[in-house]
Write a structure and sequence with these properties.
This protein has 124 residues and is mostly helical. It contains 4 helices and no strands. Helix 1 packs antiparallel against helix 2 and helix 2 packs antiparallel against helix 3.
């Protein structure tokens, strides 16, 4: 089985297990809703950062595609860390704004860079 696929399944399975444990702990009165939400969303941000870290390490033959993967990897890794950090320490309303804003900005940066590479390829 592919190493990337195993890592992805591990992340997905781990988050599902964390969500089930957090849900059980909440139903037992051990933690509140805010903590349950954070237990699930912090690892989600770390997973996005992990995917961003893995993106530039996959082989592609084109130099432009490698450049796009580097920028996309950096933007997703940084966005994922900001997302995880916001949900770890900030009040929940602020964390939603900061974390989701970082993700939208990272995706927009990646998309914009890919479009600029495409435009550069057309003019060259």
């Amino acid at each position: 089985m592919n190493k990337d696929l195993i890592g992805s399944l591990m992340w997905g399975g781990g988050i599902v297990v964390l969500a089930l444990i957090a849900s059980w702990a909440r139903s037992q009165g051990l933690i509140d809703q805010d903590t349950t939400t954070r237990i699930v969303l912090v690892p989600t941000g770390l997973m996005i950062a992990w995917f961003g870290n893995r993106a530039p390490k996959t082989f592609v033959p084109s130099a432009r595609a490698r450049a796009a993967k580097r920028v996309t990897g950096w933007s997703l890794a940084i966005s994922g860390l900001i997302y995880a950090g916001a949900f770890a320490v900030a009040p929940l309303d602020t964390a939603v704004m900061v974390g989701c804003g970082a993700m939208v900005l990272g995706i927009a940066l990646s998309f914009g860079y890919c479009l600029s590479l495409r435009h550069g390829a057309r003019t060259a």
